[in-house]
Amino acid sequence: MISRRTFSLLAAVGAASLALSAQATEAWPSRPVSIVVAYPPGSTMDILARLVAQNLQEELKASFLVENRPGASGRIGAEYVARAAKDGYTLFISGNSTHSANPSLFKKLGYDPVKDFTPIIRIATMPYALAVREKSNIKTLAEFVKQAQQSKGRFAYAYGSPSAQVASVAFAASEGFDALGVPYKGQPPALTDLIGGQVDFIMADLPVLVPYVHAGTLRVLTVFSDKRSPLLPQVPTMLEGGVKGYDLAAWIGVSGPAGLPPEITSKLSDALSRILVKPEVTARLQTLGMQHSPNTPNQFAKYVDEQLLSWGQRVREAGIPAE
């Protein structure tokens, strides 16, 4: 039986612990926060992470540093965050590759996209696009499909993320041709080989392709959207090109390790919500081809669940075996 004195002592210790925890949470962030990107510098995730880091520094008066941990189709970075301390000093700029496509593409993932993370906020969505090098003799989507069908599997595509692989295989299957996939650690090296002629086409995030189009090294044939992008208004949608019922979009959000203190989650969500409505931030997202779409942590958690099921279905329909 616990004496009154012992009970009082335990209660005091518990109250002190809660007070210390509350003080620690209130003090967050008191040292640099790492924002992990599972892809190399120059990728869409990296570009957005640096925009987020810069604005969080101004909003929360603390240091936010981007940390690139590329490789293994995003699994290295995702697993690193999943195993990180639950103190708010390791965050993750994640998306449909690590959280939606990977679980169906790999037998041994190294992390659980739902159980191992704390959803904080969805930042934006953006369309995929199909591109060939500018020197290619393919000028339209119809010409591309015709040549791909005649190639009998010799067309090679580059992919720098699992979701890009799914998009490529699903599109090829829908149009009745086979293609050879060549994996890369990210979109920048994949684009380098496309420009150099080592592969024939790529399906990638539109924002990454735009600078290459302006530089005269790539030609975008179509966007995976129901309306044209203001970034490349001259490029038709897949619906305009005669492909029906095919609308793919990527998403990007911020999360932390599972068990992140609710106070920190809320503080981050509130700060990012304020950031995402800043005119200069929304304008920057638009120039990147992204549509800002912030939501609450609970809404983001539900969205992640829905996307996990949706991309899993696309992987199965594309007939991609798990590695």
Automatic annotation (TrEMBL):
Residues 1-24 form the signal peptide. Keywords: Receptor, Signal. This is Tripartite tricarboxylate transporter family receptor. Belongs to the UPF0065 (bug) family. Coiled coil: none annotated. InterPro entries: BUG (IPR005064), Bug_dom1 (IPR042100), TAT_signal (IPR006311). It comes from the Bacteria.
